[in-house]
Amino acid sequence: MYCPKCGKWNEEEDRFCSDCGEELIDNQPAVWEGEKANEAWETVYAFLKKHKKKLCTGLVVLILAVAVIAGGSAIIRHFVGSERVVKQYVEAMVERDWSAMYDTLALPEAESLSREKFVSYMETNAMELPDIARYEVKEAGESDGLIRRYTISYVSTGSSTEQSISLTLVQQAENQLLFFPDYKIATDTMVCEPVITALQGATVSVDGEMVEGGQENEYGELVVTLPPQFVGEHTISITYPYCKPIETVEYFMQESATSYTSFELDEETAQQLADTTQQLAQVLYPAAGDEAELADLSLPCAFTDEAYTQLNTQYGYMLESFHGSSTRQISHVTLSQISNTTDMSVIPYDPAGIYFETSFEYDYTETYRSETNNYSSYGYLGVRYQLIDGTWTVSSIDYMNY
Fold it and tell me: What is the pTM of this model?
């Protein structure tokens, strides 16, 4: 029983309080206040629910009068629904009946807050809940009709220390029984709406379900506010064209905001761009040896106007170097030992351009003052690609070495 002086719980056979030493008296609620009051309430509630559309005002008043006589203040507290919901919530916690607990919650309308997801959420987080052996429900603080607050004092299994849980109940706008409002447990601390920032064109999924929508921020990034989610761990998947997907587990809480703007090219795309750079070198250098015009060449990739202007300038320099001297001419240029000098293991994606470099050895024939000899040299080609309208396009020629 509870001590009348300090309120601490003691065993039934104790004569004095183990905490303050006060003599214990039988101060526990009468059986009528608890069990029989609940039985009376259930009977009245079921009757009203079944006949609410046919009952006249006088009959309602009569039933209420009977309820007051039969059950006293305990039934009235049950009638308004709030204490009844609290008891259902705690009993569901005791029984670990997450589906029953779900029915007591005031949750926003969202597919991500379905009964199935709540059950899964609680099975993951059940270890954080107390194992209640005994409890008592008390209304706490002032209530304004729309909100009611309760304190559940309880003792855990295997413990003699009393603890408490605070619950806030919110009056519901619908599902009312006559003029008696329904209440449900407020879930402000259980639900959150995280914000995810990614690149424009990215696809965001949470727990395997794609999230649509989003807005562009001042940096041109995609900002997605997720539908209401239960606080806790969630699996995030972010995909972006031609990049490795990002798979991670995040703990969502109030005002969570995470950014996923750093991607890496996938292996296939990286290899494609590396091969394109090599092909570009294999076209340009032999063509310069043959003194071909750039406009006549079939290039393996698209160029922006600025990049093509850069290429034209660089190619002109190479033609001048190979053929501009009256005493020295270079011809029959062939490439060998071509390799990527870019680190292919990790290639960060950059919307402004992705750099690839290829190196090679080239053999050529040099005619100097009517004397012809074969020589070898080394060259490098650095190219930056940008994804424009779904096509990898050369955005700049960083350098051509010959």
Answer: 0.68
